[in-house]
Amino acid sequence: MTDTTASTDTLPVPGDLGRAPRPFVIESRHPESETITSFRLRPTDGNPPWPHVAGQHLTLFAEVPGQGLQKRNYTISSAPDGRTYRISVKREAQGTVSRWLHDEARPGAPVSVAPPDGSFVLPADDARPVVMLSAGVGLTPMVAMLEAAAADRRAGDLLFVHGTRDGATHAFGPHVRELAAGHAGIRTTFFYSQPRAADVAGRDFDVAGHVSLDWLAGHTPLDTAEYFVCGPLRFLRSFVPGLVQRGVPPERVHYEFFGDVEDLFGEATSQQSPPASGAVVAARRSQAIGGFERAAIGEALLDSAADAIVASDAEGAIVLWNAGSERIFGFTEDEALGQSLDIIIPEPFRARHWEGYRETVASGQSRYGAGDLLAVPGLHRDGRRISIEFTIVLLKDAAGKVTGMVASVRDVTARFEETKALRKRVAALEEQAASPG
C-alpha cells in the first residue's frame, strides 16, 4: 500500500526558492514491483520542496561511487504533499544511477534536486474525458495525475489503461485500484502480455495481451478524449502517431518521452552522440602564434557561413546570428536577433528544450560542452524540418552565473537521410532473408 496522504504539518512556502539545485536526502524507499522501487526525497535546507503539478519531473544529481556526479530526470510519481517528492525508478542493467538507487542507496543518502518542470499535466478543466495510456515504468506520471484527480474530485471521466508483462512487474496495481474504487468517474483496464499462472483475470488484470489501437478505438472516445501517453520508445512510436492517424487531433495527444528522445514520427532523431574517445580536456584560454591574433581567428569563425553560431541570453532570446545560421535556418540576421530560439525548434520539441535550457542556466552545468554532440530536429524558416548536431558553450559572469549560451550548429540532414535509407534497405533484406522459400 503506497502512502499518498498529505501531511498536515507542511512547511510554509518561501516567496522564492530559486531554481538552483538544493540538498535533499532519500527519506525512505519502497518496492512497487520486482523491477520498480519508489524513493521519497526530502529537502534538508529547512525549506519545503518546490511546488509542482502532478505529471511533472525533477532533475536528480547523485554522487555515484566510481562514476562521479550523475544527473538524471525522473518523473515525480506522487501528487504534491508539501513535504517530499516520490520518484519511482526501474532498475536498468546498464543504468548507472538506477543501479545505484536500487542496489546501494539507503535512507539518509544525500542527493541534490533541481526544481520540477514539464508540461505533461492534466488540463485545467475537465470538459473532455481523459485516457491515460502507459506501459512499464511509463505509468509514473499517470499515477501522480490519478492521485491528483482523485484528491480534487475531478468531475470528468478518466480511464487508466496500463500494460505490463505480468503481476510481478505490475507496479502500483492495488493503489490504482483503490483510487478508482473511491471515485465514480475513474475506470481502469490492465493488460498483461504474459500473465503467470498466479495472475487471475478479473482480479489482477483485465486483458491478456498487448494494448492496441483497435482496442482503443473500440473502448475509448477517439472523437472527444484527451490522450496522455507514456512508455518505452516503441510504445510511443506506435500510439502517438497511431492515434493521430485514427483521427485524434494532435493537440489532444499528449506524450512524455521515456528513454532515448527520438522523433516519434520517424523523422529526425534526437539523441546524444557517443562521446569522443580520449582524455577529458578542460576549457582553457587558447593562444595564437606566428603573427596570428586570437581576435582575428575568432572573427573569421563567427563570420563564416560554414557552421551556424547562435548565441542566446539566459531567457533564450537570440543575441548573435552569423552567416552560417542564415544559411542553415533561412532567417536573416534582422529577422532572428531578439527572437526566441523557438523560431528554429519544431513545436513538439519546445517543451523538452526549455526544460533543459532552464535547468542548465540554473545549474551552470551542461554535458554538451565537452565534445559530446546532441542531434535534434531543427526548423527552417520555410517550415521544413532539418537534422542538426550541435555543442554549446556556457557564458558566465564573474560570479559564475550563467548569462547565456553559444551553440555551434551543423546541418546533417543529408547524412541522416542516407542513414535512414540504408536502415530501410537493411531491414528489407533481413525480412527477405527471414521469409521461407
UniProtKB/TrEMBL annotation:
<dbReference type="GO" id="GO:0051537">
    <property type="term" value="F:2 iron, 2 sulfur cluster binding"/>
</dbReference>
<keyword id="KW-0521">NADP</keyword>
<dbReference type="Pfam" id="PF00989">
    <property type="entry name" value="PAS"/>
</dbReference>
<keyword id="KW-0274">FAD</keyword>
<protein>
    <recommendedName>
        <fullName>nitric oxide dioxygenase</fullName>
        <ecNumber>1.14.12.17</ecNumber>
    </recommendedName>
</protein>
<dbReference type="InterPro" id="IPR050415">
    <property type="entry name" value="MRET"/>
</dbReference>
<dbReference type="InterPro" id="IPR035965">
    <property type="entry name" value="PAS-like_dom_sf"/>
</dbReference>
<dbReference type="InterPro" id="IPR013767">
    <property type="entry name" value="PAS_fold"/>
</dbReference>
<dbReference type="Pfam" id="PF00970">
    <property type="entry name" value="FAD_binding_6"/>
</dbReference>
<keyword id="KW-0479">Metal-binding</keyword>
<feature type="region of interest" description="Disordered">
    <location>
        <begin position="1"/>
        <end position="48"/>
    </location>
</feature>
<keyword id="KW-0408">Iron</keyword>
<dbReference type="InterPro" id="IPR017938">
    <property type="entry name" value="Riboflavin_synthase-like_b-brl"/>
</dbReference>
<dbReference type="InterPro" id="IPR001709">
    <property type="entry name" value="Flavoprot_Pyr_Nucl_cyt_Rdtase"/>
</dbReference>
<dbReference type="InterPro" id="IPR001610">
    <property type="entry name" value="PAC"/>
</dbReference>
<dbReference type="GO" id="GO:0046872">
    <property type="term" value="F:metal ion binding"/>
</dbReference>
<keyword id="KW-0411">Iron-sulfur</keyword>
<dbReference type="InterPro" id="IPR039261">
    <property type="entry name" value="FNR_nucleotide-bd"/>
</dbReference>
<dbReference type="InterPro" id="IPR000700">
    <property type="entry name" value="PAS-assoc_C"/>
</dbReference>
<keyword id="KW-0520">NAD</keyword>
<comment type="similarity">
    <text>In the C-terminal section; belongs to the flavoprotein pyridine nucleotide cytochrome reductase family.</text>
</comment>
<dbReference type="InterPro" id="IPR008333">
    <property type="entry name" value="Cbr1-like_FAD-bd_dom"/>
</dbReference>
<keyword id="KW-0349">Heme</keyword>
<keyword id="KW-0560">Oxidoreductase</keyword>
<feature type="domain" description="PAS">
    <location>
        <begin position="301"/>
        <end position="347"/>
    </location>
</feature>
<keyword id="KW-0285">Flavoprotein</keyword>
<dbReference type="Pfam" id="PF00175">
    <property type="entry name" value="NAD_binding_1"/>
</dbReference>
<feature type="domain" description="PAC">
    <location>
        <begin position="372"/>
        <end position="424"/>
    </location>
</feature>
<dbReference type="InterPro" id="IPR000014">
    <property type="entry name" value="PAS"/>
</dbReference>
<dbReference type="InterPro" id="IPR001433">
    <property type="entry name" value="OxRdtase_FAD/NAD-bd"/>
</dbReference>
<keyword id="KW-0001">2Fe-2S</keyword>
<feature type="compositionally biased region" description="Polar residues">
    <location>
        <begin position="1"/>
        <end position="10"/>
    </location>
</feature>
<dbReference type="GO" id="GO:0008941">
    <property type="term" value="F:nitric oxide dioxygenase NAD(P)H activity"/>
</dbReference>
<dbReference type="GO" id="GO:0006355">
    <property type="term" value="P:regulation of DNA-templated transcription"/>
</dbReference>
<dbReference type="GO" id="GO:0050660">
    <property type="term" value="F:flavin adenine dinucleotide binding"/>
</dbReference>
<feature type="domain" description="FAD-binding FR-type">
    <location>
        <begin position="19"/>
        <end position="123"/>
    </location>
</feature>
<dbReference type="InterPro" id="IPR017927">
    <property type="entry name" value="FAD-bd_FR_type"/>
</dbReference>
